[in-house]
Specification:
GO terms for molecular function: structural constituent of ribosome. With 459 residues, the protein is of the alpha/beta class. A five-stranded parallel β-sheet has the order 6-11-14-5-15. A hairpin with a 5-residue loop joins strand 12 and strand 13. It is globular.
């Protein structure tokens, strides 16, 4: 906010600033859902929002000349720092794809599996269609914002991502000549770190890599949605709360990428699936369970939960147990916004006529089935502090003590690569680029990725 105020003051004296131009790729990216709220409008004057976010009533005595002067000043500000709108160069150009120290800016390999630690930090280029095909459940908001503003669907391969990739790779395929006791691996990991340090993007890249290796990945890009919205009912069988709308969506998302593989995996549990209330239709009369016929596959199990709303929650809970028994293919559970499963949901249970009790996330059947890391399955969760409602304690229930791994912001080498990439994508003007200037925005943002991208045009 201080930087914006200084820029406005400088522009009033004789300079000028800028508004970002929406990129061509913005039309290809599906916008994320936002929650709409209704606000009351103050009467008796036109409301104006200040830079501090407070609302004040505009003075009715100010005339058109003042409005025109203010508008002209802001137009001048928006003109100086406007992003380049010229067409980008060809995608692959060795003369332009130069990183810090003359090193290649992009990796020479097109797979996350073949990149070595010597190649980091470099960028890997994928198409938007490939990202959506590998992650049909949805892309992280930060990744989509990066693609939109840089006008390219490339991601930087960081050392911490390679450490995560190698950790899970060693679990499935241990190196030759190394005993299991000397092999240090973690089957359960919780990514924590500052806001905008790249946790969600690293998790999405890990899912992309695992699926390209043929793994079965249960990917949850928005864990917060499991505890918000839709209907909720108390389940009489276990005293937990069922959310059939979310359960059906969970099954549909899991089926998007894994349908062919699930058709080959047989069910190993044939106990009846308990039924609950359907979405807006109540309980099923005279029936409290549903049996899966012998010879059913996991695909048949999921289709049952999608077709019958009364069974959707029970199928999600059963699916968690079935996936832990799969041995034919490596199974990885990847959950973003994992911290939302340790706080209260938006649901409330009426206690008296005038009071309600907030329902904790652990009381929701689907969350209760997937939250725990006290098992031998491979599972990774990423905290999202942008969706957090409060700080969590260091020791979390149902999570091993050594599971939490701190994910750092950009270091100096990574910031140099990012700055040269922004120069390549014309977020920074060539004639104004220098090592001194990109280091200034690195230290000013303290390595925050989104802030560095926002500050890049001001070089």
């Amino acid at each position: 906010m201080l930087l914006r105020s200084l820029l406005r003051s400088a522009a009033t004296a004789g300079g000028a600033v800028a508004e970002r131009v929406r990129s061509p790729i913005a039309a290809l990216i599906v916008p994320t859902d936002t929650t709409s709220r209704t606000f009351a409008k103050a009467a008796g004057g036109k409301a104006k929002t200040t830079t501090k976010g407070k609302v004040k009533v505009k003075d009715s005595r100010s005339g058109p000349a003042d409005d025109a002067a203010e508008s002209s000043s802001m137009d001048n500000i928006n003109a100086e720092f406007e992003l380049a709108t010229d067409p980008l160069p060809v995608v692959y150009d060795p003369l332009l794809d130069v990183g810090p120290g003359g090193r290649p800016l992009f990796s020479r390999v097109d797979s996350l599996s073949r990149i070595s630690h010597r190649d980091a930090p470099t960028y890997v280029d994928f198409s938007l269609e490939e990202w959506k095909a590998m992650l049909p459940e949805g892309l992280p908001a930060g990744m989509m914002k990066e693609f939109e503003e840089t006008r390219r669907c490339a991601v930087m391969v960081r050392q911490r991502f390679l450490d995560l990739r190698d950790n899970f790779r060693r679990i499935v395929d241990p190196p030759m000549g190394v005993s299991n006791k000397s092999l240090k691996v973690q089957k359960q990991i919780v990514l924590d770190g500052p806001v905008s340090c790249g946790k969600s993007i690293a998790l999405a890249m890990l899912v992309h890599w695992a699926r390209s290796e043929g793994w079965l990945v249960f990917y949850v890009p928005k864990g917060r949605e499991w505890t918000h919205g839709g209907f909720f009912y108390r389940n009489p069988h276990n005293n937990l709360w069922d959310t059939p709308v979310q359960a059906a969506k969970i099954l549909q998302d899991f089926l998007k990428f894994n349908e062919s593989r699930l058709q080959q995996l047989p069910c190993q549990i044939f106990e009846p699936i308990p039924l609950g209330e359907g979405a807006g239709v109540g309980m099923m009369k005279g029936v409290d369970s549903m049996a899966m016929p012998e010879g059913s596959t996991l695909f048949d199990l999921i289709q049952t939960g999608i077709s019958y709303t009364h069974a959707s929650v029970g199928v999600v809970v059963r699916l968690r147990k079935e996936l832990s028994l799969v041995k034919d293919v490596p199974v990885l559970f990847a959950v973003d916004q994992y911290n939302n499963w340790f706080t209260f949901s938006e649901y409330e249970e009426p206690v008296t006529v005038r009071s309600c009790r907030p329902i904790h996330a652990r009381e929701i059947s689907t969350v209760n089935a997937f939250r725990s890391m006290m098992h031998s399955d491979m599972m990774i969760g990423a905290f999202s502090h942008s969706t957090a409602v409060g700080k969590l304690r260091e020791e979390l229930p149902d999570v091993p003590l050594d599971a939490r791994v701190m994910f750092p912001r950009y270091n100096l080498d990574e910031a140099a690569t990012v700055s040269h990439y922004y120069l390549r994508q014309k977020l920074i003007r060539q004639e104004q680029f220098s090592d001194e200037k990109w280091k200034k925005i690195y230290y000013l943002s303290n390595g925050n990725g989104s802030e560095m991208r926002w500050l890049a045009p001001f070089i």
